[in-house]
Structures are given as C-alpha cells and as structure tokens.
Please model this.
Amino acid sequence: LIEAGKEFGLKHAGMFAMDGLRLEKGYKWWGAELDAHTSPLEAGLGELVDLNKGEFTGKTAIMKKQREGIYKMLGMFTLNPQDGQMFPWGKENIYRNGELVGYVTSAAFGHTIGKHICMGYVKKCGGEPITQDYLLDGKYEIEVAGEHYQAEISCGPLYDPRSLKINM
Model:
C-alpha cells in the first residue's frame, strides 16, 4: 500500500505520526501537559492570558503566581536518534546537571525535524521559583529504559515557531 501510494504523495499519518507533529509545533494536550493543577504560566501559555479583560475564574491565582513565581516550567527536549535504539514514550525522568528535576509528559519522534521529542516539566531543586533563564541553562539528559541520553532544551515550538506554514 505504501509503495503503491508513493505516486500520489501518500504519507504516514497514524496516531504516532500525528503526535510527533503535535510535539514539533509545541501543542499541549489536556491530561498530559495541561490539567486543573497547572497554570498557563507553568505551561508556557502566559502570553495567551489577558489579565486586563475583567474578572474570570483563575485570574487571582495567575496574578499570585506572577508575583510569587512558579515552581515548575514546561520545556521541549530533543534527543539525537543516532544515540542508540531508544524510544521515549512519556513519564521518563529528566536530569539537569546530573540531578533529577522532572518528568516527560509526552514523547514521540518528530519526522519533520528528524529527532526524538520530549515535552516535560522541570522543577528547581530546593523549592525555589523557576525562571526561563534557569530552565535554558544547564546540561540535560532524559532517562530512557535505564539509559541516560543527552537532550537539548527549548521553550518554544521546534518546527515553524512563527506559524508561517499553517494554512487557515
């Protein structure tokens, strides 16, 4: 079927391929990256919240987190597929400078960028608020099936970050 479909531009688009595309764009899923206990600030969605539009559910909590800081932050991690026969699925440990700091919420292979992608939350040890500078500074590893693999960190979409290729 795949061979016969080549002349028509047939592409793989199963569940795992779609999840890879979602992660490349940095799209979050309810139940993985988003839940009732995670603020938009922690999930990297703070710019989508208009605190000037009047009262809404959660406004006071978001303003408090802005003042006092947040204690976890979502990061995008890439792993080099040449580093071995690993495949992250989610729930893997995240290490920063050799110290356990978080967990992977979603993972898939990004066919467009040619790397494994992990999205996950990082906490700063010692119970202090975390900043984007702290998140981006440091050497990261993701533990997959008991092995540690070097990971590169980013805070935004890995593919088409300015959404110039999305057709509406």
The longest strand covers residues 99-110.
